[in-house]
Amino acid sequence: MLRWAVIFFIVAIIAAIFGFGGIAAGAVSIAKILFFVFVVLFLISLISGLARR
Residue 4 carries which DSSP code? Predict the structure, then answer.
């Protein structure tokens, strides 16, 4: 999931360079959502891993 967030971020940077503001804004928002979902899932797995020990 973090990989997809990085891919969308790179797409946003390339779109911004070429002047596609709407596409860049959309790609950035998707990258943000995927990053936060990744962080939440990582924290859940970290806590559940610590609770099992």
Answer: H
Give the dihedral sign, CA 22/24/27/32.
negative
pLDDT bin (cut points 50, 70, 90) of residue 33 is very high
Angle between helices 2-17 and 21-52 (to 10 degrees): 160
User: pLDDT tens digit string along 16-28?
Assistant: 899 888 888 888 8
- pTM for this predicted structure: 0.74
Number of domains within the chain:
1
Dihedral (Cα; 17, 26, 9, 39), 10-degree rounding: 160
